[in-house]
Design goal:
86% helix, elongated
Length: 88
């Protein structure tokens, strides 16, 4: 786990794309938690599968839903600023 944090820190230094850090961390978490799901000890297996589902949904929301919401909020802000200029 510590090695994964070190590798992610090194990758962040060289990544210049907007979603790449999010993708790399998400893929790293999904991979490590997914591998924990194959453990023979039931508690460890459940500890891997349950967060795997949560992180997977969070990653999908951060990649697909959040940009759309931010775009809509930007458009709403511009519309409100235009109304403010015309009214006063």
């Amino acid at each position: 786990m510590i090695l994964m944090v070190i590798v992610m820190g090194i990758l962040f230094a060289y990544v210049r794309y907007r979603f790449m850090p999010l993708l790399l961390v998400g893929i790293g978490l999904v991979t490590s938690l997914g591998l924990m799901g194959f453990a023979s000890f039931p508690i460890t297996s459940n500890f891997g599968i349950t967060p795997l589902i949560a992180v997977g949904f969070s990653l999908m929301g951060a990649i697909f839903i959040m940009p759309a919401v931010l775009s809509l909020m930007g458009n709403l802000t511009e519309l409100l600023e235009e109304r403010k200029k015309h009214s006063g």
